[in-house]
Amino acid sequence: MGFFDDLSKAASDVGKAAGEAARNVQESMAENQRQAQIARAERSAQDAVIAEKVKGIIVTTGDLRQEYEIIRPVFFQVSNKGIFSSKFSKLAEKYSEELKQLEQSSKSVLGELAMGLFLNEWSANEDDFEKAFFMATEELKRKAFMLGGDAVIHMKQDIDLDTNGFQYFYLQMYGTAVKIKG
Hints:
By secondary structure, this protein is α+β, with helices and mostly antiparallel strands.
């Protein structure tokens, strides 16, 4: 009988230890989830602050009348090519609120600009061009901000179309990030 009593006690001890380990794992997972939520909230708040500051960045296809210090060239490219997801679709998700406002605006300057840029060629992806132009401009502004700039001057863009099979486009946009003096 002593052997079975010892065995039963050992099994009970193992069960208690396993239960304690499971509780510790659950508490650790809950703490990790809480820390991840805090980190996401902090990133979201930081992104909101950056987004607000980026709104003030000037982007122009020409020069500025103010004196400035050249920081360096900035470049961004995006394409809607991708089997399951593309950089374009990820950016569209990132800028979803701004794009909704853009779509709701009946006097979209970007829409008029995009039509002029594409020589009034109609395309199934015409709306995507407008979105890509907007998102690339915002990303240039973000890059200039991260470098300490106030503006992007001499912005240029190039769009290449791939019409083999499905229609894809590639947009490259670049300019010079500058810090306005004074």
